[in-house]
């Protein structure tokens, strides 16, 4: 017996009303519109009727626009319209964040080349939107493929005010930023009709810059290195929000940028990024982790980097010892050879 039938029989036995007795328009207009994305997806599993109602494009479009205001943009609307399931597929790809910790065996280089990457960015503080931006990066140019990948959203003199006041507050506001600021950075591949959220949503690090004193919030997602990257292990999708105080004590965002680094902190080139993103979008999981899991994963990554650096240092130390030993041996051999030649000449 199906779970829907069981639920119906139970409701009837207790004098309740089966869901099939409620007019579909009432369900769709007054019940389903109040649900968030994960709840709506769960409700769709309850019965065939609910499944058909929960796949309505308008429901998912409204949920997507509420969750990510930036995607209500003509360029993104056009891209989502080509997704097989429309906004429902887009939500499934983008919520909550991408988890891809192991390399797949799929060779994405044989598939259609990605022509552009669309970034949809939303920053909230205490659930209030403070910044939203869409950026399009062309990926077919030789400059993109051969240069370090960097997306910088704010112009040089552009700043964005935040609701955070730093007057006579010491550094208490740093903990407030850590607790209440969230950032979503969705990368969309219109060629493959795939998307992924490469932000940790919550900051994994909030600290002052040692030189300028500006506040830097870092959001990070750790991913498996792309196929063919040898022993590079993992890469870090790193989003940095730089804030500084001005007259009046209002904290203002001065920089919002994203780049991808390997475990040696080298910024990867565009061509490398495409392979990693294509693999992550196609093979990665989308699931909500436990509270603080993003920071834990980031700290594990830092520990792996430290261990890697130590191994590299020990290996270089051994090579230096071998080099010195070989050089010393050659020098001694040369001296003995010269000494032998001199002795031979003197005995003649």
Structure description:
Helix content is 41%, strand content 24%. Helix 5 packs parallel to helix 7 (87-94). The longest helix has 55 residues, at 293-347. The chain has helices spanning 3-13, 24-31, 37-43, 48-54, 57-67, 74-80, 87-94, 142-146, 172-180, 270-283, 293-347; strands spanning 98-99, 116-125, 128-138, 150-152, 160-165, 181-189, 194-197, 205-208, 215-224, 234-245, 250-261, 285-286. The chain is an alpha+beta fold. It is built from 11 helices and 12 strands. The chain folds into 2 domains: 3-55, no CATH class; 97-288, no CATH class. Strands 4, 5, 8, 9, 10 and 11 form a 6-stranded antiparallel beta sheet that branches. A 4-stranded antiparallel beta sheet has the order 3-2-6-7. The model is unreliable at 1-16 (pLDDT under 50).
Q: Name the overall outline.
A: elongated
Q: What value does the Rg take, in angstroms?
A: 28 Å
Number of strands: 12
Task: Tell me the β content.
Answer: 15-25%
What composes the largest sheet? 6 strands, antiparallel
* Structural class by SSE content: alpha+beta
- Number of self-contained structural domains: 2
Give the helix tally: 11
Order of helices and strands: HHHHHHHEEEHEEHEEEEEEHEH
Mean pLDDT across the residues is 84
Give the N-terminus to C-terminus distance in angstroms: 111 Å
Q: Helix share of residues?
A: 40-55%
- Spans of at least 5 consecutive residues whose pLDDT stays below 50 are 1-16
Transmembrane segments: 319-339
Keywords: Membrane, Transmembrane, Transmembrane helix
Organism: Escallonia herrerae
InterPro entries: AT3G44326-like (IPR045283), F-box-like_dom_sf (IPR036047)
């Amino acid at each position: 017996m199906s779970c829907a039938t069981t639920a119906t029989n139970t409701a009837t036995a207790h004098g309740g009303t089966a869901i099939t007795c409620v007019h579909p328009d009432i369900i769709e207009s007054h019940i389903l519109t109040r649900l968030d994305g994960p709840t709506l997806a769960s409700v769709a599993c309850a019965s065939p009727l609910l499944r058909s109602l929960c796949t309505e494009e308008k429901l998912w479009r409204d949920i997507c626009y509420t969750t990510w205001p930036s995607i209500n943009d003509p360029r993104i609307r056009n891209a989502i319209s080509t997704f097989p399931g429309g906004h429902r597929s887009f939500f499934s790809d983008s919520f909550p964040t991408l988890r891809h910790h192991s390399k797949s065996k799929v060779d994405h280089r044989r598939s259609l080349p990605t022509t552009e990457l669309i970034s949809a960015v939303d920053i909230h503080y205490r659930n209030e939107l403070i910044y939203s931006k869409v950026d399009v990066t062309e990926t077919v140019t030789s400059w993109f493929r051969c240069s370090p990948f960097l997306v910088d959203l704010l112009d040089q003199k552009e700043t964005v005010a935040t609701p955070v006041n730093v007057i006579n507050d010491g550094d208490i506001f740093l903990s407030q930023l850590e607790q209440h600021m969230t950032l979503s950075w969705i990368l969309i591949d219109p060629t493959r009709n795939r998307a992924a959220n490469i932000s940790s949503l919550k900051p994994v690090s909030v600290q002052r810059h040692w030189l300028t004193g500006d506040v830097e919030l870092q959001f990070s997602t750790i991913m498996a290195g792309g196929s063919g990257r040898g022993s590079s292990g993992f890469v870090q999708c790193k989003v940095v929000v730089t804030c500084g105080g001005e007259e009046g004590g209002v904290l203002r965002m001065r920089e919002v940028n994203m780049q991808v680094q390997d475990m040696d902190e080298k910024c990867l080139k565009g061509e490398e990024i495409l392979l990693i993103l294509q693999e992550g979008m196609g093979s990665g999981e989308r699931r909500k982790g436990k509270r603080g899991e993003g920071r834990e994963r980031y700290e594990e990554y830092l520990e792996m980097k430290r261990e890697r650096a130590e191994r590299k240092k020990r290996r270089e130390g051994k090579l230096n010892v071998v080099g010195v030993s070989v050089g010393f041996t050659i020098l001694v051999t040369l001296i003995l050879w010269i000494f032998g030649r001199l002795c031979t000449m003197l005995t003649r």
